[in-house]
Amino acid sequence: MDHDFKTKLAAERERVEDLFEYEGCKVGRGTYGHVYKAKRKDGKDEKEYALKQIEGTGISMSACREIAVMYIREEHLMRFSLIFNCLASMKG
Fold first, then answer.
1. How far apart are CA 32 and CA 62, in angstroms?
2. Which positions bind ATP (predicted)?
3. Which of 6, 51, 57, 85 has the most Cβ atoms closer than 10 angstroms to its Cβ?
């Protein structure tokens, strides 16, 4: 892939750490990675979010199925909001 294109893409991509405060707020570990309690940095709302970091360089089929389940609207399930593709690992 073209180096200039990759650099431009990285500069334009939203980063989870720019939008959410979550450092030091690890609440658990699931099958595919770590879960953090997060709040929006922009103050648009006071909601608490569950931020899930999926480990690894690729996403397995079972991880894809888990992501698909997050789109289900059900009162007993957390609502899916955003997904980020991060090259560097998150801290927590």
1. 9
2. 52
3. 51
Per domain, the residue ranges of the chain are 3-69
Query: What CATH number does the domain located at 3-69 have?
Result: 3.30.200.20
Residue owning tokens 């199925």: 65
34 contact partners, CB below 8 Å, separation of at least 6: 26, 28, 52, 53, 55, 90, 92
pTM score, two decimals? 0.58
Task: Return the DSSP state at 55.
Answer: P
Residues 43-82: pLDDT tens digits? 899 989 888 887 766 667 777 777 777 777 777 766 667 7
